[in-house]
Design a protein that fits this description.
alpha+beta, HIT family, subunit A, five-stranded antiparallel sheet
Amino acid sequence: MLGFAKKCPFCSDEISHRILMEQGTVFAVEDLYPVTQGHLLVIPRRHTLDYFSMTDEERFDAQQMLLALREQIMRYDSTVQGFNIGVNCGPVAGQSILHAHIHLIPRREGIELFSRHFGYLGSSRS
């Protein structure tokens, strides 16, 4: 493993017990600092900086996983009425872990988003 990847929380062996789903080149875990209940991360296995450095295969697998996770969440949680899908690329854009990951954030009517890093992020009403 490369030196920079040794310190990466997504490359650590310790993340293996948190994996909820695997799909080819990616896996999903619960966000340790969720902005809503059920906030998940889809992460490529390969250490890569951000969404733009992911391979076509990784992006395809991530898309398939997002669809599967959405279906599963909608089946088991009738309070979920929508989703935010988010990617932060670079520290100036809010990326706090320099390993590509995609946020899948279930949304419920009237529930506001709050991030311990960014504070109030908005409500589910437009």
